[in-house]
C-alpha cells in the first residue's frame, strides 16, 4: 500500500505531535498544522529528518479560510488526503454554570466544536472527490461523562462525538469512515495545565485503575489503527483510552 497522506490539526504539541511522529515513522506524507510558524517549520523539518515528506500549514481551526487553505495545500502538495486527525483543542474555560459568559463559551466551543466541524467540512470535500479515506476526531472522556464545573468543555466534547456519528453516516456512501478517540488523562501540556501540581496529579492517578495517565504515543497508536485498513469496518465509533476510568467507579468496584 502506498504511504498515506495524513493531515493533523493542532499538531505542534501533545497528541497531535506524537501522531505526526508516529506517521513519519511509517513513511507517511504528513501535513502538520497549528498557529505558530516557527514551531511548525521546526516540526516539519524534524519529520523530514526521519525520512518522511512533510509540510507545515499555519491554520487556526476557528477560521473557515484557514482550514480551507490547509486542506487545499495538502492536496496541492500530495495529491489528496487519506487520513485526517482533527485534534486541535483547548481546555477553554472552566467554572460553575452560573458564571458562564459569551467569552467562556466561545473560548471553548469555537475551537473544539466549530473547529472540528470546519475541519470535517473541508476534509469531506476533498476525501470524497478522491475515493475515500478516514477521519479521526479527538473527543475526551468528558465527551462520555460530566464533571462539576467542566460543563462547557464536556459539552464541547459530547458535541464532537455527536457529529462523529452523524458524519460517519453521511460519509459512508462516499467511502469516508469517521471515528473518534476519547482520551482520558494523557500526559501533555493540557494535562499539566489542568492538573496544576504534583499533589493533584497524584490524586488523579490514585483513581485511575491503571494508576497512571496515558501517553500521547498511546493515543497516537489508536489513531493509526482507526486510520488504517485494519479498521476498515469501523465507523461512527469512539475509542476510549482512559486506563480503565470509564469501566466503573472505584466506589462501586463490583464483584
Ligand atoms: N491531555 C489530555 O488529558 C486530554 C484528554 C482528553 C482529550 N484531550 C484532547 O486532545 C487534543 C490534544 O490536546 P493535548 O492533550 O495534546 O494538549 P496540547 O498539547 O495543549 O495540544 C492542543 C493543541 O491544539 C492547538 N490548538 C488550540 N487551539 C487551536 C486553534 N484554534 N487552532 C489550531 N490549533 C489549536 C494547540 O496549539 P496552540 O499552542 O496554538 O494553543 C495545541 O498544539 C485536544 O482536543 C484535547 O481536548 C486531551
What does this structure look like?
Helix content is about 45%, strand content about 15%. The mean pLDDT is about 95. The protein is globular. With about 260 residues, it is α/β, with parallel strands linked by helices. It has a single domain (about 5-245), classed as NAD(P)-binding Rossmann-like Domain (Rossmann fold), CATH 3.40.50.720. Helix 3 (about 65-80) runs parallel beside helix 4 and helix 4 runs parallel beside helix 5. It has eight helices and seven strands; from the N terminus they run E-H-E-H-E-H-E-H-E-H-E-H-H-H-E. The chain has a seven-stranded parallel sheet with strand order 3-2-1-4-5-6-7, sandwiched between helices. The site of NADP nicotinamide-adenine-dinucleotide phosphate has 29 residues, from helix 1, helix 4 and helix 6. NADP nicotinamide-adenine-dinucleotide phosphate binds next to helix 1, helix 4 and helix 6.
Amino acid at each position: 500500500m502506498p504511504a498515506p497522506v495524513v493531515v493533523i490539526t493542532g499538531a505542534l504539541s501533545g497528541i497531535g505531535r506524537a501522531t505526526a511522529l508516529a506517521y513519519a515513522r511509517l513513511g507517511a506524507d504528513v501535513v502538520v498544522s497549528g498557529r505558530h510558524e516557527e514551531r511548525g517549520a521546526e516540526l516539519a523539518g524534524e519529520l523530514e529528518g526521519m525520512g518522511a515528506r512533510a509540510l507545515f500549514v499555519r491554520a487556526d481551526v476557528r477560521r473557515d479560510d484557514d482550514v480551507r487553505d490547509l486542506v487545499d495545500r495538502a492536496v496541492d502538495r500530495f495529491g489528496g488526503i487519506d487520513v485526517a486527525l482533527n485534534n486541535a483543542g483547548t481546555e477553554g474555560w472552566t467554572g460553575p454554570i452560573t458564571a458562564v459568559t459569551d467569552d467562556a463559551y466561545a473560548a471553548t466551543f469555537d475551537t473544539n466544536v466549530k473547529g472540528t466541524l470546519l475541519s470535517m467540512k473541508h476534509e469531506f470535500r476533498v476525501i470524497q472527490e478522491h475515493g475515500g479515506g478516514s477521519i479521526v476526531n479527538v473527543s475526551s472522556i468528558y465527551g462520555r461523562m460530566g464533571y462539576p464545573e467542566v460543563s462547557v468543555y464536556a459539552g464541547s466534547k459530547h458535541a464532537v462525538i455527536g457529529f462523529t456519528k452523524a458524519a460517519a453516516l453521511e460519509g459512508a456512501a462516499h467511502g469516508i469512515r469517521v471515528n473518534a478517540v476519547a482520551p482520558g488523562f494523557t500526559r501533555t501540556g493540557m494535562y499539566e495545565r489542568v492538573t496544576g501540581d504534583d499533589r493533584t496529579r497524584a490524586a488523579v492517578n490514585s483513581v485511575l485503575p491503571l494508576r497512571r495517565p496515558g501517553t500521547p504515543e498511546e493515543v497516537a497508536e489508536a489513531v493509526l489503527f482507526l486510520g488504517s485498513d485494519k479498521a476498515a469496518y469501523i465507523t461512527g465509533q469512539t475509542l476510549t483510552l482512559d486506563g480503565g476510568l470509564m469501566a466503573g467507579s472505584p466506589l462501586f468496584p463490583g464483584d
